[in-house]
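Thread amino acids onto this structure.
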């Protein structure tokens, strides 16, 4: 999933790497408390936490895009770049990062059905 920011498409991904980084940020309670981390009652801390969340998912999304498309040059969002957004832009980008996180957390299993051949039967 992605969103256009400053004229470029930004990818977000909740990956193993993102989990490890978020676990480090939520060290006291663990990543299971991510919602509480992102909704900290202190306004300043809540915004800083959300900026970090956006940057982590952006970094992992951009890295994944580079693996999927050789020659792609990752350009993850930086802390300063997110911090200089308007409140509306910030809300939109945060919303996209949350959506990507929720989608990537869904476990999907694809079954591959093979036909038995007489030689393999």
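Threaded sequence (121 positions):
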């Amino acid at each position: 999933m992605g969103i256009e920011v400053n004229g470029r498409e930004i990818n977000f991904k909740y990956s193993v790497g993102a989990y490890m980084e978020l676990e480090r940020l939520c060290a006291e309670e663990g990543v299971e408390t991510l919602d509480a981390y992102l909704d900290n009652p202190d306004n300043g801390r809540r915004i800083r936490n959300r900026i970090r969340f956006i940057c982590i998912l952006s970094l992992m999304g951009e890295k994944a895009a580079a693996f999927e498309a050789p020659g792609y040059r990752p350009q993850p969002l930086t802390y300063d770049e997110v911090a200089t957004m308007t409140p509306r832009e910030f809300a939109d980008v945060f919303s996209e990062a949350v959506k990507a996180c929720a989608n990537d957390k869904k476990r999907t299993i694809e079954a591959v059905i093979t036909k038995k051949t007489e030689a393999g039967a």
